[in-house]
Amino acid sequence: MTDTDFETTQIEAAAFRRLLQHLMHERPDVQNIDLMILAGFCRNCLSDWYREAADARGIAMTRDEAREAVYGMPFGQWKAQHQAEATPEQLAAFEAARRDRH
User: Fold this and answer.
1) pLDDT per position as a tens digit, 35-74
2) What secondary structure, in 3-state letters, does the chain show?
3) Which of 42, 45, 64, 85 has the least C-beta neighbours within 10 A?
């Protein structure tokens, strides 16, 4: 890895940490379903990608460990504190967005 590669990795890692902080502390009100509708990914996707990256480096990580890294707390606790039941409108928008992507 060159110095440029190292610096790029450091910048990317800092941006990822900032995204997590934003989702954890500044916008916990944004529901995963809304993220899926608008962006096609959510916190659960991020935790899956995080776990896949760990696996690619030979680091064993459970789904729960990855989710805790992304949510900043155990997933069940996050759900109890922040996750609302999806509305019929959100579910319809999610299905429409999913169909549009495929």
Assistant:
1) 999 999 999 999 999 999 999 999 999 999 999 999 999 9
2) CCHHHHHHHHHHHHHHHHHHHHHHHHCCCCCHHHHHHHHCCCHHHHHHHHHHHHHHCCCCCCHHHHHHHHHCCCHHHHHHHHCCCCCHHHHHHHHHHHHHHC
3) 85
State residue 2's pLDDT score: 67
| Range(s) of the domain holding residue 76 | 3-101
Residues, the chain, total? 102
pLDDT above 80 (res 1): no
Domain count for the chain: 1
Q: What is the CATH number of the domain that holds 30?
A: 1.10.3340.10
